[in-house]
Specification:
heterotetramer, A: 111 residues, alpha/beta, Transcription Regulator spoIIAA, 6 strands, globular, B: 146 residues, Heat Shock Protein 90, five-stranded antiparallel sheet, 30% helix, binds adenosine-5'-diphosphate
């Protein structure tokens, strides 16, 4: 996984790319979320358009981001969930937990 | 496809270092691609195998880099069979908590085996205390169209 | 801050030492807690006997450990809280949030 | 104490890199120790100063390593005065959420300024949009016993 991030309309947007399979991936994403919290950026979107696939490590990172932000009065939204990831979210019942949007624009408006 | 009639087995052994999962995935995907398997199916298998190998590294061998994880990948015209063996203490898959239970939904872990069962066609887990765990998972391939 | 850890009676014991003041400290402690979760070690004690002092970064790390473990059905206990840290926990009302014990033995028994 | 009658000021400027907090603390504690201040009081001041400088780096200068944090430490027989200036946009301390409110207790952040006010005797925060923030915090010293 590669990770970049940008800001739009006061919202921090995380852009992981590639595959989220474990090993170094979890630390990278988690550290970035904590960096946001420290800087007071508590509205975060994860843009999944560039993610080929993820396994349960990836799902765990998304949940960790969600709960960490919630504990800090922030919010996490997903955007551009691909079909493969959507199917994982569905079978694991995590669709009920995440707020997912079809585009970054819609995700931004939803805060 | 040239490999249609003769099953081929590829073997890889890695030490229990979490970052090695990248190498395992590259080895797996390269061999499945060489066999002409569709990308859609490759990613299902790759998701499942990275789950199994992460478990072997983290839970089976408890991250001890002296302990090895062995993987066999057997590709035939009909199926892809994966076998992953660690040197851990074995475990009882029946005792794993239900990841779909309401009170477990926000746990960061505990969905790996569930996802493997969903993506692969048959999964068997053989944990023998003192002899480690072998997980065998098979994905059936669609009939060749040519 | 320096960080080591050990295991006793099935409980993971984290031993930070020195001062917890921010910068690299948060990442170190947080990564170790996530490592424990991955390995299924969900009973964790933080032994504070070697910590000279901490600022709000340190308190934030303790809270992050607590909530992360709780989200994963685990539990965090504190042991050997020094006077200086106790006074910070008191004025910030965090005494009501943490389960603190006078010794590692007592903390282990409390799980 | 030799420094009893002449206040001395020490200055340090660091770029906004989170790990530099270690250097700030070493500089501060070394100078307070040299002045013969008791360890108990030094740690109170060090906790407060690391809070203020972390804020200057993280919030004021938003972690931009091109922006600097300046610190003055003035030590006299009666008190230690700290002044920290960043190049950020300023802020309204009155708008900071109450860290003792029930719904904020489990937040990882938001206790820094509260702790500074508790440990130091007087604290003034001067945020000027476009000119950065200066935080001045004073700790009174107990009368010399010798
Ligand atoms: N190879 C293994 N050796 C020992 N225990 C294992 C192994 N694989 C899985 N387990 C046990 O099964 C549990 C569930 O595994 P899994 O569903 O993959 O979730 P996770 O790995 O995220 O905890 C693990 O927490 C672990 O206790
Ligand atoms: N130097 C500064 N420049 C701009 N904003 C600041 C500064 N210091 C503090 N703040 C603001 O005040 C808030 C509260 O600060 P503090 O109580 O130290 O908690 P924390 O830093 O943990 O959020 C910060 O979240 C930030 O919005």
């Amino acid at each position: 996984m590669k990770l970049s991030h940008r800001e739009e309309a006061g919202v921090a947007i995380l852009e992981p790319r590639g595959k989220i399979m474990g090993g170094p991936d979890a630390t990278l994403l988690h550290d970035q979320l904590h960096e946001f919290i420290k800087e007071g950026k508590l509205k975060v979107i994860i843009d999944l358009s560039g993610v080929d696939w993820m396994n349960s490590t990836g799902l765990g990172i998304l949940i960790s981001g969600l709960t960490t932000l919630r504990n800090n009065k922030g919010e996490l939204k997903l955007a551009n969930v691909t079909e493969k990831i959507q199917s994982l979210l569905t079978i694991t019942k995590l669709v009920t937990v995440f707020d997912a949007h079809d585009s970054i624009d819609e995700a931004i408006k939803s805060f | 496809m040239s490999t249609a009639n003769s099953p081929k087995t590829y073997r890889l052994t890695v030490p229990s270092i979490p970052d090695r999962i990248t190498q395992v995935d590259e080895f797996l995907e390269a061999n499945l691609q060489k066999a002409g398997i569709a990308d859609e199916i490759i990613s299902d298998i790759a998701i499942a195998v990275t789950e199994i190998v992460n478990n072997a590294i983290d839970h089976g061998n408890a991250g001890d880099p002296e302990k090895m994880v062995k993987m066999n990948v057997t590709i035939s015209a009909e199926e892809v069979a994966i076998e992953v063996t660690d040197e851990g203490g074995g475990f009882d898959p029946g005792a794993v908590a239900d990841p779909l239970a309401e009170e477990n939904l926000l746990r960061e872990v505990g969905r790996g085996i569930f996802i493997v069962r969903h993506l692969m066609d048959t999964v068997s887990i053989n944990g023998v205390p003192g002899k480690g765990t072998t997980v065998r998972a098979v994905k059936k391939l669609p009939p060749a169209t040519s």
